[in-house]
Specification:
The mean pLDDT is 87. The protein has 53 residues and is α+β, with helices and mostly antiparallel strands. It contains one helix and two strands, in the order ββα. 28% of the residues lie in helices and 23% in strands. The chain has a two-stranded antiparallel sheet.
Length: 53
């Protein structure tokens, strides 16, 4: 049986004073005050998703 691959499309969402990363797979990162840290969380998620974790 062939394994289906899911693409991971991330976005950064602002909620009040905080930002958080979200992914099309349903993953959500922690709330961050720095937008750059939320982007970094998203990049880490995509990188680890590609390794099967």
């Amino acid at each position: 049986m062939a394994q289906q691959q899911h693409s991971h499309t991330t976005t950064v969402v602002e909620q009040g004073r905080f930002c958080l990363a979200r992914c099309s797979c349903g993953w959500r990162g922690p709330a961050r005050r720095a937008r750059s840290k939320a982007r970094s969380d998203a990049d880490d998620h995509v990188g680890s998703a590609g390794q099967g974790t």
